[in-house]
Amino acid sequence: MARAPAPRAIRLGGRHIVPGQAACVRIRLSGTATDASAVPAWAAVGETAGPRVAVIAALRGHETAAARAAEALAATCDPHRLAGSLVVVPVFRLGGRFAPALRPSPAWRLPGDAGGDRRRRNAFTMYSEVVVGASAVIVLREPAAGRRGLPLVRTNLNEPRARRAALASGAAVALPLPAPAGSVAAAAAQAGALAFEAQAGPSGDFDDAAPAILYLVEGLLRALGLREERGGDGREPAGSDRDGPARPLRRPTPPLQPALIRRTVSVRAAAGGFLVDAAAAPGTAVRRGAVLARIAGPAQGELTPALAPLSGIVLEAPARAVARRGAPLFVLAQLQPGAQRPPFSPKPRRKTLDGKQRVGWAERIALPDLGVARLKAKIDTGARTSALHVAGLKIVGTSRGSGRRPVLEFTIPRAYGRRAAHTAVQAVAREYVVVRESSGHSERRPVIETSLQLGAITRRIRLTLTDRADMLFPMLIGRTALGNDFSIDPARRYLT
Question: What sign results for the dihedral spanned by CA atoms 51, 52, 54, 55?
């Protein structure tokens, strides 16, 4: 009868860690005199034999969500549930933006050189401590600031073990991992280890990338045979001397099996300005030539569309309402010929907050009484009364009854940027008010009452009629129309 292999202890940062033990250590770099300037790392060795996996984050020194995900992984990992050993480095390069110095140091090129300058010696130290001896190396990443992205895994898709692990990770898509000289992927291949990159950004139900990154790395650990399981209470694992309290993160709902992607294309902004219609969210399937977004210049001139150069899936999209000329807006993934769209559909963002309807600073609304089924509106809490852009406003009669109010006839644009109008609409003017604009100009406007449908809420509002042809949005929703039924997120748009 064959005997099961015995678990093996590991050595990290000058410390010997035996099976069943977890410890927080510090990897001393060249020229560091105190432990405070060393790289903190966490290691755990299981009580049964298995692979050795290294998880590193903040490779560029400023990925805060990736570093938080790595810390949460270390805080919730129990060595008694591991089959193998796990090494976690939340901040791989302290010389980046996490450093106390104002000027970050240049990036390391692995594997470095033990006889080179200080930067090469530090790179060799991290390579020999973390990468050498590992069966797999997982790098945690996140999109650039102000961007949203799908959960994805990059690896060598031509390697069967790596491809199987990527498909079982729970990512939306699996992409090939480039391995330029000096990168972690190239260094891992040189050391005989599999290389992975787990990347996720705010998307779906989550406004934070850390829970999605944590879910991906946990899926990869299970697929690699480490059998890592989160503790039921989310507390610090037994046998750990990690400093500080545990901070478990909420996990996202797992998508289905990812699709293999071979090619990605970046769509850059042809002009600088404001994004007035960014309809392609991460996970959206688009056709070639589809409008991904429209950019309005600072002078509110002609709209510049951003078109999809191919048919595929949106991997990354902007989360901010501004665009800089030449900057990347979207990242599209091209599916293989004959392949189906990956069965991933990001869940809509949480629509309610404290029992209130959650809306962004711009929304699509409806005015059923006026025959308008879809219209873009800007949410403006600085304005008291709502305003609607109309054309051809005139008085065509008076209402019946004792009030004898004027009956107005006008037309409403079908959509922003188009001059075509609806059939003439009639409404009774309840009163006339004088509105003073921010520029100091005063205007006498008629006020009508109509129904407003915003998300799941429909209510009667008072609306002033004016000429807003030079504005980005044909309608402005003031605070009296919102009342206490809505919660406004000024960083989001089109949440309803």
Answer: positive
Its CATH architecture, for the domain 352-489, is: Beta Barrel (2.40)
Pairing type for strands 312-318 and 285-286 reads antiparallel
More confident residue, 103 or 10: 10
Q: Rank 192-196, 229-233, 306-310 by mean pLDDT and report only the highest.
A: 192-196
Asked if residues 210 and 249 have their Cβ atoms less than 8 Å apart, the reply is yes
Distance from C-alpha of 356 to C-alpha of 487, rounded to nearest angstrom: 6
Q: What is the rounded average pLDDT for all residues in the chain?
A: 79
- Cα separation, 242 vs 172, in Å, equals 33
pTM: 0.64
Spatial distance between the Cα atoms of 476 and 457, rounded to a whole number of angstroms: 17
Residue 388 token pair:
């609607």
Task: Judge contact between 157 and 176, C-beta under 8 A.
Answer: yes
Label the pairing between strands 136-141 and 48-56: parallel
Domain limits of the chain?
10-259, 262-334, 352-489
Element spanning 1, H or E? none
Cα–Cα distance between 341 and 485 in angstroms, integer?
A: 38
Question: Under DSSP, is residue 186 helix (H, G, I), strand (E, B) or coil?
Answer: helix
**Comparing C-alpha atoms, which of 69, 98, 74, 78 is closest to residue 88?**
74
pLDDT in tens, 458-493: 888 889 898 887 788 888 888 888 877 788 877 778
The domain covering 10-259 belongs, at the CATH homologous superfamily level, to: Zn peptidases (3.40.630.10)
Gap between the Cα atoms of 87 and 129, Å rounded? 10
Higher-scoring residue by pLDDT: 218, 99: 218
Residue that has been written with the tokens 């260094």 in this structure:
187
CATH number of 262-334: 2.40.50.100
